[in-house]
Amino acid sequence: MRARKKKNTVPRLERVADRFTPTIPAGEEEIRVEVGCGKGKFITALAKDHPNVQFYALEKIPDVIVMAAEKAAREEIGNVKFLLADAKDLTEGIDIKFMGLDENRKPILENVAHEALCPSHSVSVLYLNFSDPLPNNKHAHLRLTHADFLERYRTVLKADGHIEFKTDNKPLFDFSVEQFQECNYEIYDYTEDLHHSDIPNPYHTEYETRFSEMGMPIYSLKARPPKEKA
């Protein structure tokens, strides 16, 4: 569910501007990234317990990410930075930008290159928590576990890095497993009922807490990308 658009989002973002970064810089000993951080419950708790790790949280909805940044500011958590960005922005690529209508009222589209937000092979853990399932199959290519995204993640993960994926949506989970397998990722810590398994799970998102309290199973896995050939 999308958060309701708020009129005061811009001034709130300005007040926590020091919590944001335009890119993920190289040079940190350990970097972990959450794609789609929501209101920040998961990433702030994780960062608080791991002060020697640098965390970065991506979220593309301003009204949502401002709440996560405010939470980090209130709790004085200094080792998490926020990026108002999309998962595709992690690596360089080409976006199609709508430039208006021509004299025949047909859309004018322009290819716009964007640079990578994240250095190659720098991320130890990439978290995908309760991503939008996009149930319409025509939008499958936009799911954050589609093969196109998994190939992008390969370029930012370290050689020993991995992805941690959680969802309440069984069709999305099944789709994701197929995509990980198609891309030759090694899947482990697989479970279709995380909260009744023996897999450690101390950090929960807002969605996870809500769905678990409703008695819904949480599907979860970890995955390592294939080793690059020497």
Q: How would you portray this structure in words?
A:
The protein is an alpha/beta fold. The chain is 26% helix and 27% strand. It is built from 6 helices and 9 strands, in the order αβαβαββββαβαβαβ. It has helices at 9-15, 41-49, 62-74, 147-156, 170-182, 206-213; strands spanning 31-35, 54-59, 80-84, 93-101, 107-114, 123-129, 157-167, 186-191, 219-224. The strands form 2 sheets. The protein has a 7-stranded mixed β-sheet, with helices on both faces. A two-stranded antiparallel sheet has the order 4-5. Helix 1 packs parallel to helix 3. The mean pLDDT is 91.
Under CATH, the homologous superfamily reads: Vaccinia Virus protein VP39
CATH architecture: 3-Layer(aba) Sandwich
Q: Distance between the terminal alpha carbons, to the nearest Å?
A: 44 Å
Amount of beta strand: 25-35%
Count the E strands: 9
Return the CATH topology: Rossmann fold
How much helical structure, as a percent, in the residues? 25-40%
What is the name of the CATH class?
Alpha Beta
Poorly predicted runs are none
Biggest sheet statistics: 7 strands, mixed
SSE string, helices as H and strands as E? HEHEHEEEEHEHEHE
Q: Output the radius of gyration.
A: 18 Å
Question: What's the structural blueprint in terms of helices and strands?
Answer:
Layout: H1 9-15, E1 31-35, H2 41-49, E2 54-59, H3 62-74, E3 80-84, E4 93-101, E5 107-114, E6 123-129, H4 147-156, E7 157-167, H5 170-182, E8 186-191, H6 206-213, E9 219-224
Parallel strand pairs: 1-2, 1-6, 2-3, 6-7
Antiparallel strand pairs: 4-5, 7-9, 8-9
